Amino acid sequence: MEIRTAAAPAMYGLTSGASCRIIPLFHRAVLSLLRFLIIFRTVFFWLLRRRPDPSAPSSPRPRKGGWRRKRGEEEEDARRRRALAEGLDMGGWDRFFRPESFVFSGRRSSLFCRSWLPVAGDVKGILVIIHGLNEHSGRYAYFAKQLTSCNYGVYAMDWIGHGGSDGLHGYVPSLDCVVADTGLFLEKIKLENPGIPCFLFGHSTGGAVVLKAALHPHIKAMLEGVVLTSPALRVKPAHPIVGAVAPLFSLVLPKFQFKGANKRGIPVSRDPAAMLAKYSDPLVYTGPIRVRTGHEILRISSFLIQNLKTVTVPFLVLHGTADRVTDPLASQDLYNVAASSYKDIKLYEGFLHDLLFEPERDEIGADIIDWMERKLQNSCLM
């Protein structure tokens, strides 16, 4: 497989992800953050000065109706999204596979999942899809058609706060929980399909989740290999101040959204129809990124960059050289540094971030299937 060094494209700071209207963070958010810290400090000391007199009669505490109301609204939105996910039109491709949906109990919540299985023939392998930030599993139906036509089964899981799963839309309290949910989901699939080799696929932040999951020995043992498209391996905030205060800020107001963030979408595909489909999809989160979610992306990215040498799972990494959301040079570093004995990289000249939604999506899907075929043949020879 040809290996080329990518020229670094103009990179944006931490974004809301590869799977919705991309919102570059912190261009104006640094000023918003500083204003918030000043206000927070003022209010904090004002409250200290107004401490109540212990000898004064106590008044009843106000009821927390606002919190309950917000929680109810979040649950109602999750039910609405699940109904949309269950009724998602497969575009007529369901004649090529048997689509099913089901709910899986993760560590903290109920997660909406899908499977696509070949209509005929034995299943030679299974690909488990972990989508990117802000998108959902239903977006991969076309890729599932490619896979099932080659007798591969496909399973996919919506993260917490994504697609038809529970949680506030677009909010990820912990990517480590997503990693753990991925391991539990894989265990369930292996139990239901004994003896069938499994591959794990991750896109963008989902690629970071997959790579971290594969560092756990019990998860790696269940895998034939992993496939990463445009993985989020070297993500940096637009300003050093943000990186310094993000841990504290994510604890104080984890769901806070940077309303002043730039709302222009970064192009993630050269196909106008694919861009329109993404931005008009009600299951794709298109709002400003929340503080905790952004901090979690910074955290997992930093961890992986520091631990590239410990990667031993067989992998294929694919990246477009013109990607302005995640860094193709970081994928090159992964290939160069990882200890895996079976590894490949493919860089697509001039391609953008959402590789499976580029005009050449058939070619890219074929490259992934070809790698899986070769990996299975290699395993049979060992």
Automatic annotation (TrEMBL):
PANTHER family: PHOSPHOLIPASE-RELATED (PTHR11614). Residues 61-70 have a biased composition (Basic residues). Gene3D superfamilies: alpha/beta hydrolase (3.40.50.1820). Residues 122-360 form the Serine aminopeptidase S33 domain. This is Serine aminopeptidase S33 domain-containing protein. Pfam families: Hydrolase_4 (PF12146). Residues 53-78 are annotated as: Disordered. Coiled coil: none annotated. It comes from Iris pallida (Sweet iris).
